[in-house]
Amino acid sequence: MVKAIRVHELGGPQVLKWEDVEIGEPKEGEVRVKNKAIGVNFIDVYFRKGAYKVPSVPYTPGAEGVGVVTAVGVGVTDPKVGDVVAYACQPLGSYAEEHIVPAIKLVPLPPSIDPVIGASILSKGMTTRYLLQRCFKVEPGHTILVHAAAGGVGSLLCQWANTIGATVIGTVSNKVKAAQAKEDGCHHVIIYTEEDFVARVDEITLGNGVEVVYDSVGKDTFEGSLACLKFRGYMVCFGQSSGAPDPIPLSSLATKSLFLTRPTLMHYNVKRDDLLEAAGEVFAKVASGVLKVRVNHNYPLCEAAKAHEDMENRKTTGSIILLP
C-alpha cells in the first residue's frame, strides 16, 4: 500500500482525498517509479472538474513527476532499477508516493537537473517548445501576446521567445506578477485588471496587431485575443482556466484570414524520438541557464487540495510542486 490523492467524485479542490491505495506490480512494458517530486498542472484541474474525461472514478490525479525506478515489468531493459527518470504523460496517477508508468513514456533525468526542477519543467517546457517551434514558428522580429505571463508556461514562453528575438507582450493580474513577467523577458506587461488588453496591444503595435496569441485562459480572453491578431495571425488556444470559449462562426475568422488551433502536448510527442528530443532540449536549456525555472510553491502531497485551491484563485506564479 502507498499513500495517494484520490478523487471519488468530480468537483472542487475538496474532492482531493489523502488515502491508502494498492498500485500493484508493473506489467509487461511498465515501470514502477517512487516519486521524488510531482508536477502540478492546470490540466489536473480540468480532469478534476470534468472538463476533460477520466477513464473511471475513483482515480488518482496527476501526469507529471520525477522519481527512482523501483521495479520493471517483463521486457523492459531501459530504464533499470535505480535510475532517476522523469515523465509527463498519461495514464494519470502521479499524485502518489509511487506510480506505474509505461517505460516508453519515461525519459532519463540528467544528473545536473534537481528532481524538483525536473518535475516542474518537463510538461511546461515541452509545451513551450511545441508552441514556439512547431504549432507556430516564432522568429526574430515577431510580436507575440502571452496571456497569464507569470504562470508556469507563461513564464517559460516569455523567456524562450525573448531569446529567439521576438517582442513579447504579456498579460497579468497584478503588479507583483507584472514584475516577474518583466524579469522573464516580457517587453510590455499589461495588467488586465487595470486596463483593456486589446486597446493596449493595439497601442503597443501601432495598430498592426501581433503574429500570434498564446491563450491558456479561454472564455474570458478568447474574443479579445482574436481582436489582437494581425492579418493571417495565429490564435493558439492551449488551455481554458476561465472556462471553455463560446462557439464562434467560422466566418468570423475571415475578417482577417485568421488561423485558430487548439493543440495538446501529447499530439506533438506521439513518437518516442519526438519525446526524447523535446525533453532533451528542455533539460539542456535549463542546464545552460537559458531557462530559469520558477518553483515558487511547494506543498506536501497530502495538501494537494490546497495547491489546487491556490492555483485556481490565481494566488500562484511559476511552477507548483507536490512533495511525497
UniProtKB/TrEMBL annotation:
Keyword Ion transport: no
Keywords attached to this entry: NADP, Oxidoreductase
Pfam families associated with the record: ADH_N, ADH_zinc_N
UniProt xrefs under InterPro entries: ADH-like_C, ADH-like_N, ER, GroES-like_sf, NAD(P)-bd_dom_sf, QOR-like
Membrane-crossing segments per the record: none
Domain of life: Eukaryota
Any one GO molecular-function label of the UniProt entry: oxidoreductase activity
Enoyl reductase (ER) domain: residues covered: 11-322
Name of the protein: Probable quinone oxidoreductase
Native source species: Flemingia macrophylla
